[in-house]
Amino acid sequence: MSQPSSGRPPVVATVAETVADLERFLGDPLTSDGPFGYAAVVEHEERGELPPGAVAAVREWGFHAYMVPRELGGRLGSLEEVFAVTRSVARRNLTVAVMFGSALLGVNPVWLWGSEEQRRRVADGLLSGELACFAVSEPDHGSDLQANETTAVADGDELVLTGGKWPVGNATRGRFVTVYAQLPGRGQSLILVDKSQLAEGSWTNRPFVRTLGLRGHDLSGVDFHGARVPADAVLGRRGAGLVEVLKALQITRTAIGALSLGTMDAALRIGLRHAQDRVLYGAPIRELPVIRELLTGAHLDLLIAECTALPAARALSVAPSRMSLWSSVVKYLVPVLGEEVVLDMGRVLGARGYLAEGVASGVFQKLQRDHAIASIFEGTTHVNLHAIASQLPKVATVADRSGPGGAEILAALFDRIRDAPEWHPDGNRLQLTNATEDEITRGWGDAVAELARLTGSDTGIPDPGRPADAEELAATVAAFGARRTAFYHRIATSPPDPASTRAQRDAAEHCVHHAAACCVLSWLHNRGGQDRPADLGWLILTLQRLLGRLEPGTELSPAQLPRFEEVMTAGLDAPGYFGLASFLPADTAPIAPPSRAGV
What we know:
Blueprint: H1 15-26, H2 38-45, H3 54-61, H4 79-90, H5 94-113, H6 116-127, E1 132-135, E2 151-155, E3 158-169, E4 176-183, E5 187-194, E6 203-206, E7 219-230, H7 241-277, E8 279-280, E9 283-284, H8 289-318, H9 323-349, H10 364-371, H11 381-397, H12 406-414, H13 439-442, H14 444-454, H15 468-493, H16 501-525, H17 537-550, H18 561-572
Parallel strand pairs: 1-4
Antiparallel strand pairs: 2-3, 3-7, 4-5, 6-7, 8-9
Helix pairs in contact: 1-4, 4-5, 4-7, 5-7, 7-8, 7-9, 8-9, 8-12, 8-16, 8-17, 9-10, 9-11, 9-16, 11-15, 11-16, 14-16, 15-17, 16-17
């Protein structure tokens, strides 16, 4: 493992500069003999351990400082930054990324609603290497937040905390515990507990839970036995705990997309390398049509996931009131895409994917096991589909009408030449519902009209040698548009019960339309100057891939695939992780992380 170019990354840097430094520091997981090399990761995974030195290494780099806002001395400038660095760690070892993600979940309520003293104390603790956790679930109640039995009874100037929380990430290793508890007569509240200030014997930890994946992660629990905490340990308003939990989850639901994107990158990289190196029937297996289809489909899914997740991460700084809907879209769609990519890369690897050695030191099995959690925590797939379904009728009523200020918000969400504005935590800016505020859905019509204008023969945007590109794009967009209009009209005029299976299917389809709009908007805001052709190929293919989720049998354009595969293959030996930057014009693509080939 190499040292950061400047010892430690600067407190304020562009997202691309930050990722470049972290990528250099962590090194190539295929060849590194450090704690983030796949060989070490697999060796210690078998023992249920983290590789020695892994956590210390990322702390040395300063990863933990991205859990603390800049205004409190940390490096968390935006959720976009957290997303980017988490993606880099996750593509090497998801367990380490989840450990810090659990800490962020635990402290977000402190940043959003805590007093100055609470924020300062927690910030100092995290910056010195402490961890935190979010103690909400209970053994008998799971996600039923109304059935919470843990109590905090007032006694003078203290609260007496009694009850058990399980399962909780970082429950044993964490010093700070944000506890969801009932204040008799006041309702559910969030309480900040500092274990270092509790009386001996007033709390105990439960044993680590054995899990399918994330081996070495602290998934355990905590019981409080009349633990006394100051009465002012309540975060925010007493009785607002349920609302605060739902709002805080909007942040981490979005950040979970980084775990999936990191896993997708690792799986696709392993599958593509194997397909190039493995020779059968006298040629590399990547020349087999079925293997080519799996690889290109997986890469398209990764691009779709990135186009969908990054604007939602930026929204925390730009338009936080939209997070209630957009975070659930990301939390549903991106892990689902990740699961499919891992499954398809398992098909590419064939028998090699079943071996705990050989290809990439046998890490593929860990990727499979670890990523299985992405669709479960911070709300299962069904929970997030229900959250989308409950908001969909109002969104549907304005799906074809642009709203005031939409252009400015969309530019801030999608223009990659600029990083997201700095986030100043304020729980009041998060909302429980978007109502009709959904610029991404409402922006489809204007975006399609702009596409048509830009791809006209007199604009110079399509490659003059490929006039069919614009026609193919128009046909794909028209197919989406026809289905989209009928879809939102039906929901607006006859909304289903949000708890019904029909509503779940509708919510899943909305996610596809949302992702399609994100792909179009990503192209529009990052197409480069008007003096040279902009690549329509990746946009055509991602839209066709998404249309195929609604209309099975939709084919990917044979005319677009060769160019797409060329860029995909070049990315295998290029610096940085796979992503849309490889397909963008040079003056719009973020700085690629300079690192060794194969990273």
